[in-house]
Design brief:
This protein has about 500 residues and is of the alpha/beta class. The chain folds into three domains: about 5-130, Orthogonal Bundle (Fumarate Reductase Iron-sulfur Protein, Chain B, domain 2); about 145-240 and about 410-495, FAD/NAD(P)-binding domain (3-Layer(bba) Sandwich), CATH 3.50.50; about 245-405, FAD/NAD(P)-binding domain, CATH 3.50.50. The chain is built from 19 helices and 20 strands. It has a five-stranded parallel beta sheet, sandwiched between helices. The longest helix has 20 residues, at about 455-475.
Length: about 500
């Protein structure tokens, strides 16, 4: 794989990143791909490990050493085939996945990992530019119809897979466009929304029907959907945000992070003239311009809030992270290689400005006339929020005009379809479904709605697995289905496997 000994003489070259002071002035991608010659060199760094732990790190089981080698040898056609063999949307994961594969790279034990994510994005964008990725309906239809509720990465993946197996799929999305939190929770600086629209257009061309502004469990009856479809898949995500349970958490100016990100993503859409983006009822309140912003929580969502606030021209932005400051690797004794590190020394958002205060816990929020004015916190010690203990005498207060709570999600929304169906839930409030089949016959679930909050790459993997289960239940085909195999249609005719590189 790659160049023999390449990792000894070639160094990691990451994405080309725009200067922070430049990129803060717009909402375009803050990074770009290196030239193909550089990507080939980066592919040469792959070590041909006896055990490629990158497979373990990737929930999709991507064939990483294979396409690293193919890029090194400039076989972009085969690299694209291998990439799409396990991942429906590498243009998404190549941009916003936190790359657990790289954290599990054997080279990362004592050196910098292979640039797996950049190579992945390089492959798929090369394929798009070369016209290798095209929409196309399956040659035969099974006559089975499926409703997918939710168009995030899990919903898109299950729809894509079921459509390729010859079923007729309709995706119902409550919001005005597809993508779920990829569209409304991820800033354009990380994922410009034309990337999502490009893939949705191909899926529509392949025969998938998207219905937007379609609130299943609200304006659309879930029982009606069940009557009109052979199967229903709930891929609604984990959308109930955790609250900061401290005095003053209900003051005006304290918002869940996703409320802020939804409003800002829609504002960018309107600025760019995209159709259908409504103005938020709290648009004026959900604005960081000229305000002192406090972000509670130090994960990716908090970083996205920090980045957005800077682009709006906030007066200041401070992140309060309960974790202790970690070494440059971000690893703790309970997160050794090949596990994911807890935190990283810096991020794209911190590079652009703002401040992160480690080892802090918010104790209360105060205000005047019902509006937030200060956040009160204390320094803590411990390995996580679960065992953090306050350090006496370290209490402090920070002025605040806008407080964004980014401490994760609890479970999927129960109001609407989940309650209407009477679905059984697990102890955490997620939809209970051991192998994607719920407690109600003909209803399945995939993604964060089943597993709880997770990564985009995990959601795509969930969608792919759920599609195999649904397909097996509807047709009796064995599952899992072998890659590239010809599969029998419901009428006895064969549905040919898709030609190479036409996805």
């Amino acid at each position: 794989m790659g160049e023999i000994g390449g990792f000894l003489k070639l160094h990691r070259v990451d994405f080309a990143k725009r200067k922070p002071e430049e990129r803060r002035l717009d909402h375009k991608h803050y990074y770009s791909l290196q030239p193909e010659s550089v990507l080939r060199d980066q592919g040469a760094r792959c070590m041909d490990c006896g055990v490629p732990f990158c497979h373990v790190g990737c929930p999709l089981g991507n064939l990483i050493p294979d396409w690293n080698n193919q890029v090194y040898r400039a076989d972009w056609l085969e690299a694209n085939d291998q990439l799409h063999a396990t991942n429906n949307f590498p243009e998404f994961t190549g941009r916003v996945c936190p790359a657990p594969c790289e954290k599990a790279c054997v080279l990362a034990i004592n050196d910098e990992a292979v640039t797996i994510q950049q190579i992945e994005l390089g492959i798929v964008e090369h394929a798009f530019n070369a016209g290798l990725i095209r929409g196309g309906a399956p040659a035969r239809r099974t006559g089975k119809t499926i409703a997918v509720i939710g168009s995030g990465p899990a919903g898109m993946a299950v729809a894509d897979e079921l459509n390729k197996r010859g079923h007729s799929v309709t995706v119902f999305e409550r919001d005005e466009a597809a993508g779920g939190l990829m569209r409304f929770g991820v800033p354009d600086a990380k994922l410009e929304k034309w990337v999502i629209d490009r893939r949705v257009a191909l899926m529509h061309e392949a025969g998938i029907d998207f219905r937007f502004d379609a609130d299943v469990g609200g304006t659309i009856s879930i029982d009606d959907l069940r009557d009109r479809h052979d199967a229903v898949v709930l891929a609604t995500g984990s959308r109930v945000q955790r609250e900061v349970n401290v005095p003053g958490g209900d003051l005006q100016g304290v918002f869940p992070a996703m409320d802020y990100l939804y409003a800002r993503n829609r504002a960018v859409a309107r600025e760019e003239g995209r159709e259908g983006a409504p103005a938020d009822a709290n648009a004026d309140e959900l604005c960081a311009a000229g305000r002192r912003v406090i972000v509670i929580g130090g994960g990716d969502t908090g970083m996205d809030c920090l980045s957005n606030a800077g682009r709006e021209g906030c007066a200041s932005a401070i992140m309060l992270d309960v974790y202790q400051e970690l070494p440059g690797s971000g690893r703790t004794p309970d997160s050794p290689w090949p596990l994911q590190p807890r935190r990283t020394a810096s991020t794209y958002a911190l590079d652009e400005g703002g401040q992160r205060r480690w080892g802090t816990r918010v104790t209360s929020i105060s205000g005047e006339n019902g509006r937030v004015t200060e956040v009160h916190a204390v320094e803590v010690e411990g390995t996580s929020s679960a065992d953090a203990k306050p350090i006496p005498g370290t209490e402090f207060s920070l002025p605040a005009d806008l407080v964004l709570v980014a401490i994760g999600f609890s479970h999927p929304e129960h109001e609407g379809a989940v309650n209407d169906l009477g679905l059984e839930l697990d102890a955490r409030g997620n939809i209970k479904a051991g192998a994607h089949a719920t407690s109600v016959e003909g209803v399945y679930t995939a993604g964060d709605a089943r597993t709880g909050q997770s990564l985009i790459v995990s959601a795509i993997a969930e969608g792919r697995r759920c599609a195999r289960v649904v397909d097996a239940h509807l047709t009796g085909r064995p599952q899992p289905l072998a890659l590239g195999a010809e599969v029998p249609g419901a009428t006895g005719e064969e549905i040919p496997a898709p030609p190479r590189s036409t996805r």
